[in-house]
Amino acid sequence: MIEIQAGPIAVVCAIAALCFLSYAIIRRKHLARRFDRVLSHAKPIVAAACIPAGFLLMEIPYNPLTFSIDPAFVALGLGVTGALFAIVFFLGQRSKAAMAAFLCACFAEGTANYFVASFKGQPILPSDVMALQTAASVSGGYTYAVGESVLAAFALLAVLGGFIAMLPAAKATKRSVAIDLSAGAAILVAFSMWFGAVDIEKDYGCRVDVWSSLDSYQQNGSLLCFLQRSQLIAPHAPEDYSPQEAAAIRAEKAAIAMADQAVEDSPATAPDVRPAVVAIMNETFSDLSRYPNVAQTYAGTVAFDRIDALVKGDCYVSAMGGGTCNSEFEFLTGSTMGLLGAGVYPYMLYDLRGADNLARYLSSIGYKTSAIHPAQKENWRRDRVYRQLGFDEFYDIDSFEDAEMFRGMVSDASTYDLILDLLNRDDDPRFIFDVTIASHGGYDTGGVDEQYMVHAPLDGIEYDDVNEYLGCIERSQVELVEFLGKLRELDRPVIVCFFGDHQPGFVEWLSNEAYGANEAGEGEADGAQPAAEAPTGIDLVQERYVTPYMIWTNNPELRQASDEPRVADTSLNYLGAILLRAAGLPLDEYFAFTLAVRDDIPAINLNGYQDAQGEWHWHGDTAARSEAYRQLSMVEHANLFEKD
């Protein structure tokens, strides 16, 4: 749904610009004849104007600091914009269509940043471009509010488009075509060589914060920041990396873990009596009562907290407001996005065949492996990635034709029914990975029944998106408890790991309301002062990157033998190994290594890592890095990119 949220002046200006564009297109032949001499000399001027106009069209829609960007970054941004325009202009034979296409692309980029920033609190990153199909398939539940900045950019586009429409058409000859193609190709080659030779961050000082990319985009310009992030997509081996050393580290740390009493005495079950392993990654499941302004009227995930779990706690993730696939990646592979960086989606970029992961390992010890996600199978390339990871089968939206729907999406309970069906088909050991979707944003559908709806006013004001989200979480808890009740009656041992993939995007706003702005400069306050005892720096950032998790079983022997403390915070890359140990299954070398590293680095995610004393550090804090950090970097790189 599209809404116009702008004042009458902005709307009138946009309509006037559209009328001018329409008039120029309809009367272009008449205007060309009447102002032939003037327009014939105006083409170079209009073409030159496309460069600053393109820059503004990329910035104005989303960036309130457009006219406060550092002049050095403005100059560099104009240079890059000019090079891209020249490529399009000359390859397009200096045509009006080439100019118009370039400006439309700039406007589309700026507007896309506006909407993505509105929904996720972050701008478009390079890997987002590769995920357009996924984004399109889940975009129906959002309201697209068009603000004054978008209308202002549209007015600029329409006015300049009107002048372009009035220009005389270019007269192409064989010679001019050859010259234009040669010029465009030469500029393209030169631009590619420049992009490959420079380090935008080091050479130009354009740094993009991994946890506050939007601020960087607004301060430095979106195009420059986008290119800087693009340079970091390709995997880089750790300093002094060698596959031989990585293999030696992995074997040595694994041996230590195997010798450790807590691992050695894990309740391994007989090969023919192994529990079914069910992992549920629940869409946007989180407990917003961790924010003090919400906790005043919201009691939190009460039903979830009452579950008699083997172990539960906070799980630090690397996604917020979106990026579900990265949470899947961390859980399944035991890898951390903290060593890959922001803007990277491994599902979209990397070949994961051969990489150690839960599905491949459990398959190797006799488990049937199934993945469930009630959406299009192509989303995040899951149809390919699940095969690469070794899943035997994948149940997508086509498997839920008669499923119960909630807010236009398949309910959690429907996916749990499929899990029960799979568990009842035979007695073979099974690993089932269920990625739910029912609580997906946006939260303005009005589709939550009153029996689940939660009303949690903030400072006396109710927000529809907050209430609907909390209603989704309430229903998720009810359906989870009912599912566990059915598993209790099942005549086979089952162990369940349940966790949320990320918090909703609006927690950016919730956090600022709760604590004030105290995040700039990696912990240096900028803006309102937070309340006393409020988290600051990286601790404040991590508040938005944590979700609840729990591991539960219906088997008394596993419950009695479990040596995990009942409350244990961790990060998502360790959770798979913790699940294997709680299930009483033997650990292979890779997952034993993972648990060994956890002793020195209890948690790690996109933002930073925790040391053995429980203190958080930014990844850029090289002075605080331990030998375990280097070892984890080595082994992760080898597992993902040196599989052969």
Automatic annotation (TrEMBL):
Pathway assignment reads: Cell wall biogenesis; lipoteichoic acid biosynthesis
User: Where would I find the Sulfatase N-terminal domain in this sequence?
Assistant: 276-583
Keywords linked to the UniProt accession: Cell membrane, Membrane, Transmembrane, Transmembrane helix
| Tagged with keyword Transmembrane helix | yes
Provide GO CC annotations from the record. plasma membrane
Location (main, coarse): membrane
Asked if the Swiss-Prot or TrEMBL record annotates the protein with the keyword Transmembrane helix, the reply is: yes
- Tell me the superkingdom of the source: Bacteria
Membrane topology is: Multi-pass membrane protein
The regions listed as transmembrane in this protein's record are: 6-26, 38-60, 72-91, 98-117, 150-170, 177-197
Alphabetical list of Pfam families matching this protein: Sulfatase (PF00884)
Database matches in Gene3D superfamilies: Alkaline Phosphatase, subunit A (3.40.720.10)
Where, per UniProt, does this protein localize?
Answer: Cell membrane
The family database entries (InterPro entries) matched by this protein are listed as:
Alkaline_phosphatase_core_sf (IPR017850), OpgB/LTA_synthase_biosynth (IPR050448), Sulfatase_N (IPR000917)
The name of this protein is: Sulfatase
* Source organism: Slackia faecicanis
